[in-house]
């Protein structure tokens, strides 16, 4: 059944590769191909199955997590959840007000996550944040959009805050969070100045967390969120 779904996904004409892989995997999870508490195939296996890059697979898995269908467990891989979470969704983020609303929610949440991460993070969690930051640059250098890597960076900060409710809230806004990051990464691909600004803002957050600067991390995250809103508005005016 998985093979039939894969072939069907590859023949679809609409959407990006990540859209098609996400839809196919959702169908497989909801259709019982991968029952609750079972493990999805590894990234290389899924990449081979769908004939796409591992970056596309990472983005698809990220979307499944945002939809509350799976979770990643250290040492166990990606596990299908028994009780699938109802996530808040905005299926089409087309207007400034919708995008701004999501970013305003993220501003309060992510500034506190960064502050708590600076106060509570372990050395292993700090290294995960720094590694996630480097992977954004690696993805862009490889010609990818960096959406999955950007989300992984923010998720690593959420995990370092050591407050599971914060991680759940970040995942709860689900697809809207993913779509906003996709919009911002797309803008950065067109504007070198935007890309450099985001690179600097991400680095400031990571550096403050690394040196355990609680207030510095909070303010760096707030500046990043507020600046992202301004960049979105500026990009729409340019169009």
From TrEMBL:
<dbReference type="InterPro" id="IPR011711">
    <property type="entry name" value="GntR_C"/>
</dbReference>
<feature type="domain" description="HTH gntR-type">
    <location>
        <begin position="15"/>
        <end position="83"/>
    </location>
</feature>
<dbReference type="Pfam" id="PF07729">
    <property type="entry name" value="FCD"/>
</dbReference>
<dbReference type="InterPro" id="IPR008920">
    <property type="entry name" value="TF_FadR/GntR_C"/>
</dbReference>
<dbReference type="InterPro" id="IPR000524">
    <property type="entry name" value="Tscrpt_reg_HTH_GntR"/>
</dbReference>
<dbReference type="Pfam" id="PF00392">
    <property type="entry name" value="GntR"/>
</dbReference>
<dbReference type="InterPro" id="IPR036388">
    <property type="entry name" value="WH-like_DNA-bd_sf"/>
</dbReference>
<keyword id="KW-0238">DNA-binding</keyword>
<keyword id="KW-0804">Transcription</keyword>
<dbReference type="InterPro" id="IPR036390">
    <property type="entry name" value="WH_DNA-bd_sf"/>
</dbReference>
<dbReference type="GO" id="GO:0003700">
    <property type="term" value="F:DNA-binding transcription factor activity"/>
</dbReference>
<keyword id="KW-0805">Transcription regulation</keyword>
<dbReference type="GO" id="GO:0003677">
    <property type="term" value="F:DNA binding"/>
</dbReference>
<protein>
    <recommendedName>
        <fullName>HTH gntR-type domain-containing protein</fullName>
    </recommendedName>
</protein>
């Amino acid at each position: 059944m998985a093979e039939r779904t894969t072939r069907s996904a590859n023949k679809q004409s609409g959407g990006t590769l990540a859209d098609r892989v996400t839809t196919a995997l959702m169908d497989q999870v909801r259709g019982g191909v991968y029952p609750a508490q079972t493990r999805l195939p590894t990234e290389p296996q899924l990449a081979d199955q769908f004939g796409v890059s591992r970056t596309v697979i990472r983005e698809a898995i990220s979307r499944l997590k945002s939809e509350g269908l799976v979770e990643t467990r250290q040492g166990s891989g990606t596990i299908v959840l028994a009780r699938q979470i109802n996530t808040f969704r905005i299926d089409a983020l087309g207007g400034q007000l919708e995008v701004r609303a999501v970013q305003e929610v993220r501003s309060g949440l992510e500034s506190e996550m960064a502050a708590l991460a600076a106060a509570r993070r372990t050395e292993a969690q700090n290294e995960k944040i720094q590694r996630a930051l480097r992977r954004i640059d690696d993805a862009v250098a490889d010609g990818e959009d960096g959406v999955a890597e950007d989300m992984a960076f923010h998720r690593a900060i959420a995990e370092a805050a050591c407050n599971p409710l914060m991680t759940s809230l970040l995942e709860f806004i689900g697809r809207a969070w993913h779509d906003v990051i996709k919009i911002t990464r797309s803008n950065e691909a067109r504007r070198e100045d935007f890309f450099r600004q985001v690179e600097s803002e991400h680095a400031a957050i990571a550096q403050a967390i690394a040196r355990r600067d609680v207030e510095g991390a909070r303010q760096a995250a707030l500046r990043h969120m507020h600046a992202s809103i301004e960049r979105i508005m500026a990009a729409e005016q340019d169009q």
